[in-house]
Write a structure and sequence with these properties.
The chain is an alpha+beta fold. The protein folds into two domains: about 300 residues, Zn peptidases (Aminopeptidase, 3-Layer(aba) Sandwich); about 110 residues, 2-Layer Sandwich (Alpha-Beta Plaits). Strands 1, 2, 3, 4, 5, 6, 14, 15 and 16 form a nine-stranded mixed sheet that branches. Strands 7, 9, 10, 12 and 13 form a five-stranded antiparallel sheet that branches. Helix 1 packs across helix 3, helix 1 packs across helix 12 and helix 8 runs antiparallel to helix 9. The longest helix has 23 residues. The two termini are about 15 Å apart. About 45% of the residues are buried. The chain binds zinc ion (ZN). The site of zinc ion has 5 residues, from loops.
């Protein structure tokens, strides 16, 4: 049993207050590395991004950890274990943000990793198994049309060949941006890792489930799978006054009917399934002409591959029927697919147990957004932990999680790392 479960109430309270101060200070400090404008903007390989990663490198070294960069700009801080033959446990999140994002998304996981390692080292000295904090270079896909660059490079899911030719909205190529910060093939140690024993990521929920249920921690069962489609409908553009209703081939009306079908069926299948039409284009798109063409996107997410498959088999057939009954032509093309990513069962059970023993209210949940932990799960047992987001708001300057909620998440992470790093000597994890 971990040490923090044996603490008295007042000892635990004192520790939480200390963690609150640490995490508040850390997030305040990291949020200053930002481009001008509202909120925090730290795009991959921008000057603010480079300053942040260099400052994190210095901070980790200052903590007495073995700090290093890899060739894509991930920063590691290593707390060496007494048994180097045991595979290390890595914890952290991404340093990049969206444009005008908040100060918690990604940054919190880095802060938590640094604070947990520092606390463990100061309190217990060297672990048995090596622990590493990581500040991952990129996850959001906000500058270049590609995401999970940091974790994907470590897991072997991203490569320098794969980003060749990519450019940002100013025409700066990925290669140029990366080189301007001193990174790229041959610039340092390889990003690809095969030695990691487990990965744990602490992140804000970015939704309102925990807040609405009054819980402190979410143990993520799975990151949802996503599939995106483009639907095109062809009808006949015609006069809005002289074309009788029964003689119309109205593409926009067909699109509207399909959206209703989609919503009705998604509701019927249960809360976990979400289906979204986020973009709709009509042609000629004028007030007094029946639309001759319409196209729209469909985004479907679920954590169960079978449920996802079933729904994505159902809707194109239902749409085709709706199109035929209106005399419309119909095309449906899938352009994006990400399979559901279940997190590691044993790590989930350990986290449930840590929360239960600490008396912290928690629940299993799915993540509707993608995270670095899903890349790591392809490499090693991985876990993803959430803390509440006020009002479910994220990717906005108003993003907020209270100091106590942040500290509680750090406490759970610290306890898990203690159990894995200081108490166990098994060859395999978890
Ligand atoms: Zn994030």
């Amino acid at each position: 049993m971990g040490v923090r479960t044996r603490m008295t109430e007042s000892e635990r309270e004192a520790l939480l207050i200390r963690l609150e101060e640490k995490v508040d200070d850390f997030l305040e400090w990291l949020s200053a590395f930002s481009a001008e404008g509202a909120g925090v903007t730290r795009l991959l390989y921008s000057p603010q991004w480079l300053e942040a990663q260099q400052a994190l490198h210095a901070k980790l070294a200052g903590m007495g950890l073995d700090a290093s960069f890899d060739e894509v700009g991930n920063v590691f801080g290593r707390l060496a274990g007494r048994k180097p033959e045991l595979a290390p446990i890595v914890t952290g999140s991404h340093v990049d943000t969206v444009v005008s994002g908040g100060r918690y998304d990604g940054a919190y996981g880095i802060a938590a990793a640094c604070i947990a390692l520092e606390y463990l080292r100061d309190t217990y000295g060297s672990p048995i198994r090596t622990l590493e904090a990581v500040s991952l270079s990129e996850e959001e896909g906000s500058r270049f049309p590609m995401a999970y660059w940091g974790s994907g490079s470590i897991a072997g899911e991203r490569s320098f060949e794969g980003v060749r030719g990519l450019a940002d909205s100013d025409g700066v190529t990925f290669e140029e941006a990366m080189r301007s910060c001193g990174f790229g093939a041959g610039s340092g140690k390889a990003a690809r890792r095969e030695d990691i024993g487990a990965f744990v990521e602490l992140h804000i929920e970015q939704g309102s489930v925990l807040e609405s249920e009054g819980l402190s921690v979410g143990v993520v069962d799975a990151v949802v799978g996503q599939r995106r489609f483009l639907v095109r409908l062809g009808g006949e553009a015609n006069h809005a006054g002289t074309t009788p209703m029964r003689m119309r081939r109205d593409a926009l009306e067909g699109a509207g009917a399909m959206m209703s079908l989609l919503r009705g069926e998604a509701l019927r299948r249960g809360a976990q399934l979400v289906a979204t039409v986020g973009r709709l284009l009509a042609s000629p798109n004028v007030p007094n002409v029946v639309a001759g063409e319409a196209s729209f996107t469909v985004d479907v997410r679920h954590s169960d591959p079978l449920e996802l498959e079933r729904f994505c088999g159902w809707f194109p057939a239902a749409f085709r029927d709706a199109a035929e009954s209106r005399g419309l032509t119909f095309e449906c093309e899938e352009w994006f697919r990400e399979e559901p990513a279940p997190m590691d069962d044993k790590l989930k059970e350990r986290l449930d147990k840590v929360c239960e023993e600490l008396g912290i209210g928690s629940k299993r949940m799915v993540s509707g957004a993608g995270h670095d932990a899903q890349m790591f799960q392809r490499l090693c047992p991985s876990a993803l932990l959430f803390v509440p987001s006020k009002g479910g708001l994220s990717h906005a300057p108003e993003e907020f999680t209270s100091s106590r909620e942040l500290a509680t998440g750090v406490l759970v992470l610290t306890e898990l790392l203690y159990r894995l790093g200081y108490e166990e000597e098994e060859e395999t994890l978890p």
